[in-house]
Write a structure and sequence with these properties.
Layout lengths: L2 H12 L3 H20 L4 E3 L3 E8 L2 E4 L6 E4 L2 E8 L1 H7 L3
Antiparallel strand pairs: 1-2, 2-5, 3-4
Helix pairs in contact: 1-2
Amino acid sequence: MNKGELVDVVADKASVTKKQADAVITAALEAIMEAVADDQKVTLVGFGSFEARERKAREGRNPKTGDKMEIPATKVPAFSAGKLFKEKVAPE
């Protein structure tokens, strides 16, 4: 499912126009990205949590030459699925 399909489903389920659904989805995603970029954890109960995680510096290899190279430490976005989401995907 892409964003356009998601907008269609949300518009149908919420009985709003596609334009309104698109605006709400876009605003929600932007708010989540901004919060995570500011080192805040965003928790949506039942759905999951978004947060920034530190990735340590590590040694890698150039795939073309095989030479060793240092990959610097960085922050990466991470998502952890909530209990209800996990149960929906893999019912017991």
